[in-house]
Specification:
By secondary structure, the chain is mainly α. The chain has a single domain, classed as 3-Layer(aba) Sandwich (Rossmann fold). The chain has seven helices and five strands. The strands form two sheets. Strands 1-2-3 form a three-stranded parallel sheet. It has a two-stranded parallel ribbon with strand order 4-5. Helix 5 packs antiparallel against helix 6. The longest helix is centred in the first third of the chain and has 14 residues. The radius of gyration is 15 Å and the shape is globular. The model has no long low-confidence stretch (mean pLDDT about 95).
């Protein structure tokens, strides 16, 4: 199995460099399914927001397309799926959602936080 980095994943969804977009899509055609690390997903969401100035809905739709595509696989697919849908329905950052859901998947009871927004999801407990 092969893995891809954030810049490859971004080029698949953002056609800002046509040559690299085609190269990234060629990698996907030739080597799918490819592994997508949690860190890559977090960087992907962050870059979509900070560099490409996409709104929450546009980022959610891209993340949703990633988790629904058979070309991508994840270490903890159910945690990634819950994180994507949580992100799409609430205010916390995707990184918070993925951290909390991944921690639950790994057997943690909760993740303590000072973040009110993150605490609204079931994976966190607010420290006040």
């Amino acid at each position: 199995m092969f893995a891809i980095d954030t810049n490859i994943l971004l080029r698949i969804f953002q056609n800002d460099d046509p040559v690299q977009t085609e190269q990234a899509r060629q990698i996907l055609r030739e080597h799918a399914p490819v592994f997508v690390n949690d860190i890559v997903l977090v960087e992907f969401a962050w870059t979509c927001k900070s560099v490409f100035k996409l709104d929450r809905e546009a980022i959610f739709l891209r993340l949703k397309a990633i988790i629904e595509a058979p070309e991508f696989c994840f270490a903890y697919p159910s945690a990634v799926e819950r994180a994507v849908y949580g992100y799409g329905s609430r205010k916390s950052d995707f990184a918070d959602w993925l951290a909390g859901e991944s921690n639950l998947e790994r057997g943690c009871e909760t993740t303590f936080t000072f973040d009110d927004g993150a605490a609204k999801g079931g994976a966190f407990r607010l420290v006040d």
